[in-house]
Amino acid sequence: MTHHQMESRVADPGSPEDYAVLQRAVKERSGIDLSLYKPDQMRRRLWVIVQQAGSPSFTDYVMRIERDESAMSSLLDRMTINVSEMFRNAKQWEILQTEILQELCRQRHTVRVWSAGCANGAEVYSIAILLAKMAPIASHFILATDIDRVSLNQARQGLFSSDEIKGVAPPDLQRYFTPTGKNFLVNPWLVERITFQYHNLLSDPYLSGFNLIICRNVLIYFVETAKRLLYQRFSDALSAGGVLFLGGTEIIFRCEDVGLHQMYPGFYRREGHSLREI
Ligand SMILES: C[S@@+](CC[C@H](N)C(=O)[O-])C[C@H]1O[C@@H](n2cnc3c(N)ncnc32)[C@H](O)[C@@H]1O
What we know:
Elements (H helix, E strand, L loop, with lengths): L2 H7 L6 H15 L8 H14 L5 H10 L1 H11 L10 H18 L3 E6 L5 H13 L5 E7 L2 H9 L1 E2 L9 H7 E4 L2 E4 L1 H4 L2 E5 L11 E5 L9 H14 E8 L14 E5 L2 E4 L8
Parallel strand pairs: 1-2, 1-7, 2-6, 7-8
Antiparallel strand pairs: 3-5, 4-5, 8-10, 9-10
Helix pairs in contact: 2-4, 4-5
Bound molecules: S-adenosylmethionine.
């Protein structure tokens, strides 16, 4: 399509039609299907980014992307919200520790954990700390994935602000972090226990055999059909008796249809043997 043809198609900058031009370009260039994200929310967020970049329309921004690849990465870097903090929603982490992890660690030689949509790593370091305390470190496989490469690099560095680590108990802070000025750096031996990888939950293949999958505050951005598909794929990626850990307000309706049972708010267990029977 020529620039003139593209421009003539934009009657209303920022409109769904204008947005569709960007959706197609993003899909072609990055494989990310924006139509699987809640449309109004995503369009509003991207509209702010596009305007801040000085583009009068999504279509204009696509032309900019054609001239300058970095325009695409800066859009992708900012398209999702990457905020996270350690032990966010303390009550849920308490349930995880006392009701779920203890059982998993007792029964398993190797505990396989996947933090899907790990953002800056706050969530995956939270689980790494709990596992380090509960079982010999060598017996863990911890995978952390995200679609945002900037966040993944941040996660690999393991540098957190005092705000992000406010949920960490003081003895753990002393044991697992080194203060650097105003920030806190995760100790390298803990970082090394985690495999960080780029992964698009909507289009890449999933590994399997996980005892615990943590995917919190990620699916909330997706349309219902995409959510449903992902619940099924998570269920398939869990070993029998494995647990899916979601945000406290994330509910899977008719969870039995995807082979899961609710244990506590935000915790779903894959059908098969109970944790005790593994
Ligand atoms: C709000 S953060 C959640 C961080 C963390 N899980 C928590 O609850 O604190 C949402 C994360 O989901 C990631 N994300 C969005 N779409 C994704 C996709 N299709 N595949 C993988 N990650 C995705 C974003 O890049 C972002 O880092």
